[in-house]
């Protein structure tokens, strides 16, 4: 399954009020990113070993991806283009030696 096929598949499980898609999906994305952090926190705290953490991270990263793909789809963004533009941006920063630091327009 490629990225565009995946994004189309997420439509089948997209259940939320259409009028609040932006709020719902951004909150969901942040929430799932928090779940990723929670797994890492438990690993650092030694509540779970690396194998267990990896297993959980695989699932949580999938959840992050679902919300990311739904946001792209709802906003009419081509997910393939989004990731390609991101790589171009980062490669330009590397060339300009501005990978470190902050701000979107480096
Ligand atoms: Mg989750």
TrEMBL record:
Any one GO MF annotation of this record: hydrolase activity
Alphabetized InterPro entries for the sequence: MazG-like_dom (IPR004518), MazG-related_GP37 (IPR011379)
Protein name: Nucleotide pyrophosphohydrolase
Organism: Cyanobacterium aponinum 0216
Keyword Glycoprotein: no
Domain NTP pyrophosphohydrolase MazG-like: 24-94
Record-linked Gene3D superfamilies: MazG-like
Taxonomy of the source species: Bacteria, Bacillati, Cyanobacteriota, Cyanophyceae, Oscillatoriophycideae
Keyword annotations of the record: Hydrolase
């Amino acid at each position: 399954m490629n990225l565009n096929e995946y994004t189309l598949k997420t439509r089948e499980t997209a259940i939320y009020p259409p009028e609040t898609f932006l709020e719902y999906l951004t909150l969901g994305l942040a929430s799932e990113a928090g779940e990723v952090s929670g797994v890492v926190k438990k690993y650092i705290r030694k509540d779970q070993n690396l194998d267990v953490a990896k297993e959980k991270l695989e699932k949580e990263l999938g959840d992050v991806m679902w919300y990311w793909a739904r946001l792209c789809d709802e906003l009419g963004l081509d997910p393939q283009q989004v990731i390609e533009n991101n790589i171009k941006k980062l490669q330009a920063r590397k060339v300009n030696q501005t990978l470190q630091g902050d701000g979107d327009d480096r």
